[in-house]
Amino acid sequence: PKNVWICGHSLVYWAESRAKSPEVGMQLGMDPSKVTVWWKGIQGMTWSQLLPQLHQLKVTWPNPDILVIHLGGNDLSTESPTNLLASVKKDMTSIRSIFPHCLLVWSNILPRRVWRHSPDSHEVDLVRTTVNRRIHNIVSELGGTSVNHDNIRCGTNTGLYRANGIHLSPKGIDVFNLNLQDFLEKWELENSKNSPDV
């Protein structure tokens, strides 16, 4: 089976528990004989923790065919965008050489109504949009792709966020997971078209 790694901050942690729950069941709807989904969500994780984490996982997990990274939201209001983007570029290039045959997937940093450490959430949101776009380009240059989550909006009436305005509600997490599932299903379809033995 193909191995899909999904790494990131607390959202990945919560997404895993939803994806494995009886309601949703089978790891994002993937057939376990074809795809194994490996989750690594660390609450409060920041960008600088990613590479050390991947090196650690590489020891015990089978190499990924897809690596989905959902990270950076916790860095936006504490790091300068320039520094963050420089780190992302450097680390993504390293990841490309650690896993040369892996498809890199950037999962867009989601909007938040409230950003810790920043009084101006509108300003952080503008930065978020730019950072996503720039990382999108970095990942594309490395042959990767992105998942946009355009259907996750943080208006108060969407019901997709918890009251704190930072974290997704169970409904929001389900939308996030469905976006990933949708992406993986398309990828699997492409994959089966390209492999002659099907």
TrEMBL record:
Highest taxon in the source lineage: Eukaryota
SUPFAM superfamilies in UniProt: SGNH hydrolase
Gene3D superfamilies per record: SGNH hydrolase
InterPro entries: SGNH_hydro_sf
Protein name: SGNH hydrolase-type esterase domain-containing protein
Phylogenetic placement of the source organism: Eukaryota, Metazoa, Chordata, Craniata, Vertebrata
